[in-house]
Amino acid sequence: MSRPGGAPVSPARAGGAPRLPGSWIARRDALQARWTTLAARERAGLTAAVAVIGLLLLWSVAIQPAWRTLREAPVRIDQQGVQLQQLQGLAVETAELRTIAPVSSAQASAALQGTMTRFDGRATLQWQGDIASVAVDGLSGDELRDWLAEVRSAARLRATEVQLTRGAQGYTGTLVLSPGGPR
What is the pTM of this model? Predict the structure, then answer.
């Protein structure tokens, strides 16, 4: 046999099968010889063992991960739906806040001072122009969150710098509030 270019085709490649290295051929031949020396009962047992191992491998590599994904998918879809609703709510709130007119410095100062009364001396306020610096000592996370939401809506101020540490009594540190802030 020869190829169109005149190069001969080797007998091993005539059938299209790749050629195995010599050491593999020797091992294959040794295994075939060993297989033929086994009793029929031993061959049946080895065949069953290889089939069980193959099925176990097929289960652990192909079927089980797909099954787990199908089982967990509805829960993940529900979680992502809840997250999407939260993000959409935040987007609506952001759009509403952008349409609200800014307040004057005097109004912002009065509103911020009004929100400070709830802390009973655990927070102090200092003004530098339009920028307010608030030092807090021992506020819980809920108190801080609620207060920042009120400051944002009533005084139209946003936290632009926050340096807080969490201790046994709550959060302690400084918040810098400015009108507008980063968008």
Answer: 0.47
